[in-house]
Amino acid sequence: MQVLVRDNNVDQALRVLKKKLQREGIFREMKARRAYEKPSERRGREKAEAVRRSRKAARKLAIREGLIAGPAKKPRPQARPARPAAAS
Length: 88
What we know:
This protein is mostly helical. It contains three helices and no strands.
């Protein structure tokens, strides 16, 4: 995984790297590997994750088909009126 540092802006490159690692699931995997997980616990966790995924997919499908109401949309801020040009 690579992150380019532009204009010596290391802070921005770190933010981009963290976001990429988060998306890839590296942090979650590191946390899981800190301690040994028994096979029975692993099966239970994976089954719970599968149930969670299927419920989320079913909820999205129901929203898409109009069976249930979706989340309330946030009001978008109004665009600012154009400023008049300065007279010179």
